[in-house]
């Protein structure tokens, strides 16, 4: 009875651990491509390899004497690794509710396994040291399969941890060097993909940063020092704020565009932007600049036409949202504040966004173009976007709409090919448009199946120099261990020392 219960618990543990690894670590959290998770990945790798050793050992042998004591020691080490993993996860990322529940079940189930297994091992320690071959039939076969899976993911996480040591480690200290005077910057949406990097760059350069977030726990991962507020009402009227960068808004690609979701997308942006305009009016000394995020969705669906800031928009949900969002921000001009509406394209980073979601499938050679693959994708590398924000701050002549995209947009098929090339994987698959529409409805229609050939005409006119003008260079900087500063020097025809000075815009 005890042996059957033990086997059942072990089978449950293997099943839950496999689900956790595949669904959470690979499919939703994309841990293997997050530089911030290198310590967690290393812990996962060590634990998986220990599991593989235990599966093979206990599946085919009875270990007596010294060897049984060694197994008990390995189990104790596994417990220490798991506890360390819990701490690391709490410090480095916010776990989704499903992962927290699953981890609790894994811990309880593992405790039950130890209660049943350790007494057997203790009895084996009392016997003469020996390794006795055994075969438990289907149980031994399951042990081999489980060990193979543990080794596969253990090695993947080991190499991912090594990759994380250099992944996305461009020099943040020079990204905002164009901002000559020390400034106080209020950043909304500071815990998002763009805001996190912007706060890191500003604090590294010695600027005073005020972070507005509804989730203080997520703000704990930001680079200090900064002042944290959870509401604009916490800012007094005599506070000094020189610049506001408004990046807050409900994510647009994390769920179907139901009526409720569409309302949240619009209302979250309007509510925050209108609140910022009220703050500007409330302050004794209004900020000199408001940079308010928008998106290239403003232009709606277009064919091969090159779209500049003066191009006309086509009717779409994206236009409705961005137009209302930009109008709300423009209201700040009546208080003497310069307003820039930043129409942001696809932001490239391994830390999130569309690229972060695509990497796991491409790494497993499942990369694919969407529909015909002829639709245009206007993109920008994340650090270039941070440098663009700094350039806007430093140049008071820039106002109104600004396209935040790289100079060379690509078609979706070219994007798939270049991403596959950067990872050394084929990318010849195609997801039919009908299937995408069936799965995601209007969200797929606007975000995946229609394109916009947007170019940054205004930023080019004022002399902003991109570090990454081509997709190949950007992906090389993001996904390989080629030093970013070397790429920057090559692209701007400057010596390395000049590139590292950060004054390229």
Write a structural description.
It contains 17 helices and 17 strands. It is of the alpha/beta class. It has 2 domains: 2-164, no CATH class; 172-500, Rossmann fold. A 7-stranded parallel sheet has the order 5-4-3-6-7-9-14, with helices on both faces.
CATH architecture of the largest domain: 3-Layer(aba) Sandwich
Rough shape? elongated
* Number of alpha- plus pi-helical segments: 17
Rg computed from alpha carbons, rounded to a whole number of angstroms: 26 Å
SS strand fraction: 5-15%
Largest sheet: 7 strands, parallel
Q: Structural class, from helix and strand content? A: alpha/beta
Mean pLDDT: 91
Number of beta strands: 17
Sequence of strands across the biggest β-sheet: 5-4-3-6-7-9-14
pLDDT under 50 segments (min length 5)? 483-505
Tell me the distance between the termini: 73 Å
Which percent bin holds the helix content?
A: 40-55%
CATH class of the largest domain: Alpha Beta
The CATH superfamily of the largest domain turns out to be NAD(P)-binding Rossmann-like Domain
CATH topology of the largest domain: Rossmann fold
Overall tally of domains = 2
Summarize the structure in short.
The chain has 17 helices and 17 strands. It is α/β, with parallel strands linked by helices and 505 residues long. The strands form 6 sheets. It has a 7-stranded parallel beta sheet, with helices on both faces.
């Amino acid at each position: 009875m005890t042996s059957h219960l033990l086997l059942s618990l072990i089978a449950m543990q293997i099943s839950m651990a496999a689900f956790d690894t595949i669904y959470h670590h690979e499919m939703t959290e994309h841990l293997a491509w997050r530089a911030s998770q290198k310590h967690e990945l290393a812990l996962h790798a060590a634990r998986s390899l220990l599991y593989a050793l235990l599966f093979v050992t206990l599946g085919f042998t009875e270990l007596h004497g010294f060897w049984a004591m060694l197994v008990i020691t390995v189990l104790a080490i596994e417990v220490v690794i798991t506890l360390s993993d819990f701490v690391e996860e709490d410090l480095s990322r916010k776990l989704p509710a499903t992962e927290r529940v699953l981890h609790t079940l894994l811990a309880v189930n593992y405790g039950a396994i130890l209660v049943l297994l350790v007494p057997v091992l203790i009895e084996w320690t009392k016997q003469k040291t020996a390794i006795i071959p055994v075969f438990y039939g289907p149980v031994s076969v399951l042990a081999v399969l489980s060990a193979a899976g543990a080794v596969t993911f253990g090695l993947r996480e080991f190499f991912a941890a090594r990759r994380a040591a250099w992944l996305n480690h461009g020099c943040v200290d020079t990204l905002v060097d164009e901002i000559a005077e020390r400034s106080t910057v209020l950043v909304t949406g500071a815990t998002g993909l763009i805001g996190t990097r912007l706060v890191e760059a500003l604090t590294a350069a010695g600027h005073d940063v005020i972070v507005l977030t509804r989730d203080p726990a997520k703000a704990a991962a930001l680079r200090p020092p900064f002042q944290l507020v959870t509401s604009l009402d916490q800012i007094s009227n005599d506070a000094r704020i020189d610049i506001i960068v408004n990046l807050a808004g409900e994510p647009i690609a994390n769920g179907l565009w139901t009526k409720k979701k569409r309302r949240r997308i619009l209302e979250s942006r309007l509510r925050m932007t209108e609140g910022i305009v009220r703050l500007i009016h409330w302050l004794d000394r209004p900020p000199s600049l408001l940079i308010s995020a928008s998106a290239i969705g403003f232009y709606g669906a277009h064919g091969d036409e090159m779209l500049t800031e003066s191009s006309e928009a086509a009717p779409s949900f994206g236009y409705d949202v961005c137009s209302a969002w930009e109008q709300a921000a423009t209201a700040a001009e009546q208080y003497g504040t310069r307003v820039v509406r930043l129409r942001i394209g696809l932001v490239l980073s391994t830390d999130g966004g569309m690229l972060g979601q695509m990497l796991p499938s491409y790494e497993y050679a499942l990369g694919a173009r969407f529909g015909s693959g002829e639709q245009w994708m206007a993109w920008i590398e994340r650090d270039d976007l941070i440098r663009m924000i700094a350039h806007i701050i430093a140049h008071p002549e820039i106002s109104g709409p600004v396209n935040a995209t790289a100079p060379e947009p690509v078609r979706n098929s070219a994007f798939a090919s270049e991403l596959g090339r950067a990872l050394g994987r084929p990318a010849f698959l195609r997801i039919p448009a009908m299937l995408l529409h069936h799965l995601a409805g209007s969200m797929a229609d606007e975000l995946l199946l229609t394109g916009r050939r947007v170019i940054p005409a205004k930023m080019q006119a004022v002399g902003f120099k991109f570090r990454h003008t081509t997709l190949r260079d950007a992906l090389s900087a993001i996904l390989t261990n080629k030093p970013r500063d070397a790429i920057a020097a090559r692209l701007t025809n400057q010596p390395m020392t000049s590139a590292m000075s950060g004054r390229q815009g």
